[in-house]
Write a structure and sequence with these properties.
Length: about 240
């Protein structure tokens, strides 16, 4: 299981939102590239980047910061947030980003998603953000009637390279991940699932390691606030 540090970008800065609320923002760094370099130095094999401004607006807004991160580290990067157009994907892949994540488009524009998965096999992941089992879109501002498991199965058939599953109620709360919901998600599909939301300490990593075939877990607030040591978490996940 990979331990994947997150870098959330807002106005070119490294921030965290509480439960995805754009007014509940904490700024951790004015230099996202330096943050990426730090996570790389601690052993991160993959870094998860989210353009929060893009997620709310529907278009990439922090491309310059993303490009600078790419120039700074050699670690594999995956980027999400506002990727709802082919042009967004082309810009990111041209900048050297290895994987992209789309969310809202998976609900609203199936043709876009199918085309992207076919054109870039193995490089297009889909974020499923859920609250009480229902999928939320547009930066978590709109909750749909579609269940997370239903969408996951549909995405697998379309050809998504993997799923990033976020329990919104746990995100940024440091209350522990939703183990049961994560296990259900992993067992519902055969493509890789990455868990996100709620990780607060090494005990949470131990709990997630018990989920058979969980591909990875994203951690954000815990490594910024210091309740989780990224290096120790990576070591634990590597040795079991």
């Amino acid at each position: 299981m990979l331990i994947i540090p997150a870098i959330d970008l807002k106005d070119g800065k490294c921030v965290r939102l509480l439960q995805g609320k754009k007014e509940a923002v904490t700024t951790y760094s004015d230099n996202p590239s330096a943050t990426a370099r730090r996570w790389e130095s601690l052993g991160a094999q993959l870094i998860h980047i989210v353009d929060l401004d893009g997620a709310f607006s529907g278009d990439l807004k922090n491309l310059d910061a993303i490009i600078q991160i790419r120039r700074t580290v050699k670690t594999v990067l995956q980027v999400g947030g506002g990727i709802r157009k082919v042009g967004n994907i082309i810009n990111l892949f041209s900048a050297g980003i290895e994987r992209i994540i789309t969310g809202t488009a998976a609900i609203e524009d199936h043709e876009f998603l199918i085309s992207a998965c076919n054109k870039y096999p193995g490089r297009v992941l889909v974020g499923i953000d859920a609250i009480e089992g229902k999928v939320a879109i547009k930066g978590w501002e709109e909750v749909t009637s579609i269940t997370a498991k239903e969408l996951a199965k549909r995405l697998e058939l379309i050809g998504a390279a993997g799923i990033i599953y976020t329990d919104i109620s746990r995100d940024g709360m440091l209350t522990g991940p939703n183990i049961d919901a994560t296990r259900e998600m992993v067992e519902s599909v055969r493509i890789p699932v990455i868990a996100s939301g709620g990780v607060s300490c090494l005990d949470d990593i131990k709990s997630l390691l018990k989920i058979k075939n969980l591909w990875g877990v994203i951690t954000g607030k815990a490594i910024y606030s210091g309740t989780l040591d990224l290096k120790e978490a990576i070591k634990l996940a590597t040795t079991g």
